[in-house]
Amino acid sequence: MTIDVTAERVIGLPPERVAAYAMDWRHDHEWTQGIRTAELTRQADTGGFGVGAEVTRTARFLGRRIDYVLRVAAYDPPRLLDMVSVAGPMPMHVTYTFDPHPDGTHARIRVRGDAGKYYWPAGPLMARQVRSSIGKDLRDLARRLGT
User: Fold this and answer.
1) Above pLDDT 70, what percent of the chain?
2) Residue 27 to residue 30: CA distance in whole angstroms
3) Peptide bond into 91 cis (omega under 30)
4) How far are the Cα atoms of 1, 55, 59, 61, 96 from residue 64, in angstroms, in the given order?
5) CB 85 within 8 A of CB 93
6) How far apart are alpha carbons 49 and 39 in whole angstroms?
7) Which of 33, 29, 22 is nearest to 141 (CA)?
8) Which contiguous run of DSSP H or E holds residue 54?
9) Nearest one of 78, 129, 127 to 137, comparing CA atoms
10) Residues whose CB falls within 8 Å of the CB of residue 121, separated by 6 or more in sequence, listed in order
11) Strand partners, 98
């Protein structure tokens, strides 16, 4: 079962400020649903965080502990952070975009993945849960930033 869900929200701050916080893996556990820990486990080829960097996350989802690694595929602050899973229970692709909006920033999270054989029975529930989670992520991001 393929999952492709998007959540969007306007946040009343400039994209540079929103993206600086949201694209910093050290804040993942503060605003991303279920994330317990996040660790930079591989630096970008140029050092630090950027294309090729990998972040290992430990999360809880549908009552289970999930460990997965996201590799940065595209990084163009403050507009885009695109990550693909390279280890974990299911293939996924996570894209954050932050575009200027008359009221601040149009923030968008898109999650695509394949529930595969392991999660196949829970596929429809997973899609709803992911949509709900990323909607809450954007709500919590706005709250963390004081809007």
Assistant:
1) 92
2) 5
3) no
4) 19, 20, 8, 5, 24
5) yes
6) 11
7) 22
8) strand 54-61
9) 129
10) none
11) 107
Distance CA 145, CA 16 (A): 12
Cα distance between the two ends of the chain? 36
pLDDT digits (tens, 9 = 90+) for 20-75: 999 999 999 999 998 999 999 999 999 999 999 999 999 987 678 889 999 999 99
Which class for 146: exposed (0-12), middle (13-18), buried (19 or more C-beta within 10 A)? exposed
Tell me the residue type at 58: T
Say if residue 119's pLDDT is above 60.
no
Compute the 3-state secondary structure of the chain and give helix, strand, coil in percent, each to the nearest 5. Answer: 30, 45, 25
**Largest CA-CA distance found in the chain, in angstroms, rounded:** 44
Q: Residue 26 corresponds to which tokens in the numbers above? A: 């050290």
Cα 36 to Cα 27, 32, 125, distances in angstroms: 11, 9, 22
Closest CA to 39 of 59, 56, 51, 58: 56
